[in-house]
Amino acid sequence: MLEVKNVSYAYTGKYQTNEVLHGVSCSFKPGSMYTIMGPSGSGKTTLLSLLAGLDLPSKGDISFDGNSIASIDRDKYRRSIASVIYQSFNLFPLLTALENVMFPLRMSGKSKTDAENHAKKYISAVNLNDNILKKRPLMMSGGEQQRIAIARALAAEGKILLADEPTGNLDAANGTSIVSILKSLAHEKNYIVVVITHNITIAEQADVIYKIIDGKLEGSI
User: Mean pLDDT per segment of 10 residues, for the chain of length 221 residues?
Assistant: First the structure.
């Protein structure tokens, strides 16, 4: 269980403080896909960053399995529990698809052989075949790059997948396919999947929709 308890967050500048989130409370359970909707500047990306442990709330708390993210090793949390999938893919441009997915496995201490075998399994899990393995990002379509990004997130072998507008750079067909993969990972592999999107058609594929307006959670659908 990933829980957000009365969370507020403020950006502090030289001359003013801008509170982006105001007393947000919600929860995310394994085996379900959630979407967070809201206009630009509403605070949804900030909430996703807090869920990823990239920063801590100004007020309130976020916990995973009863442990406050503030009290645990957040680097380890991001390496082994929560992975972020970005709209811009964020693949290493000079590495092949296989090497991109192997990267977190090698960082976690797996041997090259074990990392390669695991990476191929995750690439297969996102419906790509061996033809992709030696391609570098510039040789891939947008849909292929996003699938490799998801495979790399899976390679961390965590419990939480956080996706920031994962279909924003894709056409409708590829976008639908990516959402289908994320949904199946929640339902079949028991991940907590949280997706930020502006697209109501994508949002409606989720088990729960959270809506944020002006930094406040307006409820779930």
Answer: 94 80 94 92 90 94 94 89 88 95 88 93 90 95 92 88 88 86 92 91 90 84 58
Tokens of 189: 């592999």
What's this model's pTM, rounded to 2 decimal places? 0.88
What does the block give as tokens for 84? Answer: 């972020």
The pLDDT of residue 32 is: 96
The CA R_g of the chain, rounded to the nearest whole Å, is 17
The closest of 35, 17, 20 to 186, measured between CA atoms, is 35
Q: What is the pLDDT of residue 219?
A: 66
Three-state DSSP class for 167? coil
Amino acid at 27: S
- Any idea what DSSP says for residue 110? -
Q: What is the layout of strands, in order, in the sheet containing 208-213?
A: 82-86, 160-164, 192-196, 32-37, 208-213, 216-220
Q: How, if at all, do strands 192-196 and 160-164 pair?
A: parallel
Tokens in use for 153?
A: 């997130």
Token couple for 172: 């409708």
